[in-house]
């Protein structure tokens, strides 16, 4: 491969790799992260506003229990659950607990399947 | 042995380190926040309970710490993504600066929002607590 001297090669060449579960887990970590950047500050703001005044509490609760609020809350909880346990997986990788190829494959399976189960349970319970 | 090559930014592993520190803090605080939000959604937490739980000075301090940890985590995470996918240096600098200004603005506004309730309580601000 001929190198271009002006632009050094940058890391994610997504189209040239075959899709694997570990790769999906990594990409999904980023995607859930971007989604959480958009929603978590709003959720924090909403909860604080609801704690500060009775009127805002009533408005916030009725918005949360509307269909838009419920769907957004579900999506946010699923994204957060995934980001949280995949984050634990990455932290374990950083301290060298799961740095073999088999351990990464197994932990990716555990993370993805437990997220699916969590999403289904939350969809029923919410 | 630590790597002596500090990379283009010249600051070594600071971003990496802060991302992990904030991750460990968020690991414990975010489930509490989401639990409170879900219980409020279900109607299990009344206004009185929520008001007492979130306006105690200790919980105000914890909220502020949570806010800073979340913003540090957002900044380090988005920086990695922008550095990976925005390939023109000028555009990258522009996008990162816009993000930094937005996050700093949010930090100021939310810190005010967390602590302003004290001012409402003592009637320092005309609009009152609602």
Which CATH class of chain A? Mainly Alpha
| Name of the level-1 CATH class of chain B | Mainly Alpha
General shape of chain B:
elongated
Principal-axis shape of chain A: elongated
- Number of DSSP strands of chain B? 0
- At CATH level 3, the topology of chain A is 3 helical TM bundles of succinate and fumarate reductases
Roughly how much helix do the residues of chain A carry, as a percent range? over 70%
Task: Give a short account of the largest sheet of chain A.
Answer: none
Mean pLDDT of chain B: 86
Q: What's the CATH superfamily of chain A, by name? A: Fumarate reductase/succinate dehydrogenase, transmembrane subunit
Strand content of chain B: under 5%
User: What is the total domain count of chain B?
Assistant: 1
How would you describe what is shown here?
- The complex is a heterodimer of chains A (126) and B (130).
- Chain A has 126 residues and is mainly alpha-helical.
- Chain A has a single domain, classed as 3 helical TM bundles of succinate and fumarate reductases (Up-down Bundle), CATH 1.20.1300.
- In chain A, 76% of the residues lie in helices and 0% in strands.
- Chain A has helices spanning 21-52, 54-64, 67-94, 101-125.
- In chain A, helix 1 runs antiparallel to helix 2 and helix 1 (21-52) packs across helix 3.
- Chain A is elongated and about 55 Å long.
- Chain A starts with 20 loop residues before the first helix and ends with a helix.
- The mean pLDDT of chain A is 88.
- Chain B has one domain: Fumarate reductase/succinate dehydrogenase, transmembrane subunit (3 helical TM bundles of succinate and fumarate reductases, Up-down Bundle), CATH 1.20.1300.10.
- Chain B has four helices and no strands.
- The A-B interface holds A 7, 10-12, 30, 33-34, 37, 40-41, 43-57, 61, 64-65, 69-70, 73, 76-77, 80, 84, 87-88, 91, 94, 126 and B 20, 23-24, 27, 30-31, 33-34, 36-38, 40-41, 43, 47, 50-51, 53-55, 63, 66-67, 70, 74, 77-78, 81, 84-85, 87, 106, 110, 113-114, 117, 120, 129-130.
